[in-house]
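Suppose you are handed a protein chain with no further information: no name, no annotation, nothing but its sequence. What can you learn? This example shows the usual starting point.
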Amino acid sequence: SYPGSVLVSLILFVAETAAALCLSGAYRAAGDRMWQWLTLLFALLPCALVQLSLVFIHRDVSRDRPLVLLLHILQLGPLVRCVEVFYIYFHAGRVEEPYVSITKKRQMPKDGYSEEIEKEVGQAEGKLCTHRSAFSRASVIQAFLGSAPQLTLQLYICVLQQEITAARSIFMVLSLLSIVYGALRCNILAIKIKYDDYDVSVKPAAYLCIFMWRSFEIATRVTVLVLFSSVLQIWTLPVVLVNFFVFFFYPWILFWQSKSPFPENIEKALSRVGTTIVLCLLTFLYAGINMFCWSAVQVKLNDPDLINKSQNWYRLTVYYMLRFIENAFLLLMWYVYKTDIYLYVCAPLLVLQLLIGYCMAVLFMLVFYQFCHPCKKLFSSSISEGLLSCFKFLCFICKPPKSTVLMDKAEMKSENTDEAWSSSKTIDSQKGNPHQSVSSNA
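A reasonable first move is to predict its three-dimensional structure. Written in structure tokens, the prediction is:
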């Protein structure tokens, strides 16, 4: 198939990097050195990580390719890889390949029956598949370790300066597209990793649902963080660090609780220290994704593939409920402590729009998992059933214990008995002493 995903990844990578360099030059001309260095930092750091990820996935160090490594050092790795991809694509099929591999994939079940099919995969197709996978991972790194902080920074600068220039607006649009595309590739990666034994075909409706879901989710999250940080700068760093470290240590806590052996099958050439560094970078990326949106790829360090392949609706529900509460709380703090910068902004309407926008993201997510997911027939339970059982569980937790209810009923019953007994005693006393009541009346 046509390697369109590789081309889209390259276009976003080059366009965003060029826009960042131009905007940093504009900040330097205006004398804003701090904004200049921060813009360069969020542009060049993910570029270096993208080069490292491409080198690591293609194993260029062990294959002794000095020219390719030099081009990656010069930040030209993605461009060279894209040229190589299209060279392989246009020359595939012209010469008969002497060696092919046979892969077995299962089709989506129909009427409870799944048929297994065999497919011949040539060397060219295998190389294209590796390149697509590498560029998908590079897009995720670029999106959440570069574009997401960059978009937050530029929107924060717009709020402080109360001005949106043309260059900055174009840069923010590119950053938002890069984040949404990275989240979309993350969803597709999760589907292909979890259902690797099946022949998965993603339809355009699924792409559209994912795009709308991620657009609403990321745009509202970034806006909430910027609004909060513009009025409570002191509390911005604690909020960010708490969010980050919770998701960074969560996979490690689950790994330590499982008491599994240390994973050493990631790369044969890596030592234990190198494997630890790779795992820390993986959890670092996982925390960066969950800072802004739900990560479709759930890290599981005690799994050979490092990915949790089960569909956990409870974790998904808890994440979106807690994130909605957090966004509402941050917006409340902004509304209480807002400054004169927002004098001409209708604050209640803005808060309502952001909360509705986040609810729209959840709605598109539900539509995707319920109707558009390519492997929905393989779910052990649908998302509606999962959410319903999760809500029942939460209601069970919030419901008071049965013993407490019985004790309350017993106390109420005893109080009613005492009142009835005292009232009957008063009536009996009045009936038994009529002369005393008459004399008292006299």
